[in-house]
Amino acid sequence: RWNCFDLFVTLASIVDLLLTFALEPTSEVGALGAARMLRLIRVAKIIRVVRYLRNVRAMIFTLLHTLSSLGWSLALMAMIMFLFAVAITEAVTAHLLQQGAGSAAVLVKYWGTIGSSMYTLLLSITGGINWEEAAAALETLHLVYLQLFVLYICFMVFAMMNVVTGFFCEHAFEMARSEKDSLIQEQLRQKHLYVKHFRQLFSEGDADGSGTISFGEFERFVEDEHLQAYLAHLNVDPENAWQIFRLIDCNKDGEVSIDEFTTGLLTMKGPAKALDLKSIDYNMNKESKRMQRRMQYIDAQLKEIQSLLTARVAS
Questions:
Q1: Is 0.90 surpassed by the pTM of this model?
Q2: Cα dist. 115→109, 121, 128, 134, 240 in Å?
Q3: What is the pLDDT of residues 63-109, one digit of tens each?
Q4: Distances (CA, A) of 48 to 14, 51, 58, 141, 185
Q5: Long-range contacts of 228-237 (CB under 8 A, 24+ apart)
Q6: With CB atoms 3.0 to 4.6 Å apart as the test, which of 82, 137, 237, 269 could cross-link to 106 if both were Cys?
Q7: Which of 12, 11, 1, 16 is closest to 48 using CA atoms?
Q8: Do 94 and 188 form a contact (C-beta atoms < 8 A)?
């Protein structure tokens, strides 16, 4: 999507550049106006910054995603307004035919036609007017129509608006969840690309086709430009070939399989995390306890040997 957007902005800039050179100052005003409009499209480059702002991007995608829902919500509200407007306008029209239009100027202003009635109903629930003024005009008509108007206000404010707000909030939550899912899918896609690239590198490093890479093969493989570029990206010195080989050789058998190669390079990718440091601390404590038990065993063996030697000398 971003590539299509970049293509659109680039094409608009090219067309604008061509028109700038092609059009003379004496050209038609319409053509110059079109050129100016194309020039304004270049301002859309600012939108490219949105891709790096996750929260702003999520809000924009949520707004775009709810446009269709907004259309249906407005259509439903228009239908409700139309029904109330027809009922009230018919009564007002009948009243004006009997009493004359000059006797109720306020009624004509707010409820004279279907259009003005719908406009009044819209302004009443959106803060455009004080709906008490429109209600007072209906009070001169009949108490039933005043009650009908109050029923409309209560229904739209307390029911319809809350339903629409909840509907949009639900869509916003869905978009937030889909944004997280898309980020996860993007990370999985990046990991798949890395694994595919590592397998290609492994096939290049496996000179004898044995399915494993020995240290000698790896030492020659380190000179490959692609591997050097990746190691440089990881801030790993390619000169430390033995250290790299030792880190990715999980089985410690002197041979690196394709799984060890891909897993080792993926593990080296990115900064050290708290989990990595905790794992190192755990392994060090485990190794320290193992060495302590080994030293205790050796100490016991030495004491036993010493006691045997002492007994033999004494005899």
A1: no
A2: 11, 10, 16, 15, 81
A3: 777 777 888 888 999 999 999 999 999 998 888 888 765 557 888 88
A4: 18, 6, 14, 58, 21
A5: 230/201, 230/265, 234/268, 234/269, 236/268
A6: 137
A7: 1
A8: no
